[in-house]
């Protein structure tokens, strides 16, 4: 019998959204910072190389589960257009801050999120687990939106060294919250990391489709790949009142169902 003690949340497209043009502005600021710091790059060539490098590095994380970082693909992109620059060059660090400033400025809470978290925290331990390459930018967004205070633990993949759906990050979430898998649910929007990931360790996922249902642009990654075809039949919510109703009715299953192909 499930005795729900804790709830975990994804961040982007689950608790917050960003403006539709955030990525375009971010890449523009990245290029501007590099140019100001002595790299006379052709914007079109660099943007192509940057996107290709980002996709390549992110694809590798999907195989190994180990998190990557923007500095690696920025360095690779610069090398592709003729500049030999180490990933740890301070000019790259400055460009990364410029890049993420666009997301910080355009991040918005999904309506009702703060109220929902305040209500749930009276009954459950709450955790945040986000795939986010650059920890400082994630914390800045969380602090500016007033989210930090709502959580008992906050885990960012760029600080953990691994990213969802790797089992290690969900095991760490359980450890930080002090609960077993059967006492925890996890809420997220992306089927691969947010449904398959928790199911690997026995955590029941809840699929939130707020962004999908309202045609809101996904955020924030340059190499983000969204596949809205879950392999399993799991509870689905479209707004926070759906979650509250689900919890009130004890409507969360006690275990993950098997993939539909099985």
TrEMBL record:
Keyword Metal-binding: yes
Pfam families, alphabetized: Hydrolase
Designated name of the protein: HAD hydrolase, family IA, variant 1
MF terms in GO: metal ion binding; phosphatase activity
Keyword terms of this UniProt record: Hydrolase, Magnesium, Metal-binding
Obligatory cofactor(s): Mg(2+)
PANTHER family per record: GLYCERALDEHYDE 3-PHOSPHATE PHOSPHATASE (PTHR46470:SF2), N-ACYLNEURAMINATE-9-PHOSPHATASE (PTHR46470)
Cross-referenced InterPro entries: HAD-like_hydrolase, HAD-like_sf, HAD-SF_hydro_IA, HAD_sf
GO annotation, biological process: small molecule metabolic process
């Amino acid at each position: 019998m499930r005795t729900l003690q804790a709830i975990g949340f994804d961040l982007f497209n689950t608790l917050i959204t960003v403006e539709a043009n955030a990525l375009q502005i971010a890449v523009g600021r990245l290029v501007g910072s590099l140019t100001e710091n002595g790299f006379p790059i052709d914007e079109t060539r660099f943007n192509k190389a940057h996107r290709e490098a980002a996709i390549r590095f992110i694809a590798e994380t999907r195989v190994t589960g180990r998190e990557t970082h923007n500095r690696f693909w920025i360095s690779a992109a610069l090398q592709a257009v003729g500049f030999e620059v180490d990933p740890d060059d301070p000019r790259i660090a400055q460009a990364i801050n410029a890049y993420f400033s666009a997301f910080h400025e355009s991040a918005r809470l999904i309506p009702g999120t703060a109220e929902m978290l305040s209500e749930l925290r009276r009954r459950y331990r709450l955790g945040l687990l986000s795939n986010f390459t650059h920890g400082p930018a994630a914390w800045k967004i969380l602090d500016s939106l007033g989210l930090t205070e709502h959580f008992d633990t906050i885990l960012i993949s760029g600080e953990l060294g691994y990213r969802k759906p790797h089992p290690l990050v969900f095991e760490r979430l359980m450890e930080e919250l002090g609960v077993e898998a059967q006492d925890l649910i996890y809420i997220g929007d992306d089927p691969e990391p947010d449904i398959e990931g928790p199911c690997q360790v026995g955590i029941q996922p809840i699929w939130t489709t707020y962004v999908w249902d309202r045609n809101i642009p996904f955020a924030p990654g340059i190499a983000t790949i969204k596949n809205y075809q879950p392999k399993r039949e799991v509870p689905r919510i479209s707004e926070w009142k759906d979650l509250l109703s689900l919890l009130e009715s004890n409507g969360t299953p006690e275990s993950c169902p098997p993939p539909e192909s099985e």
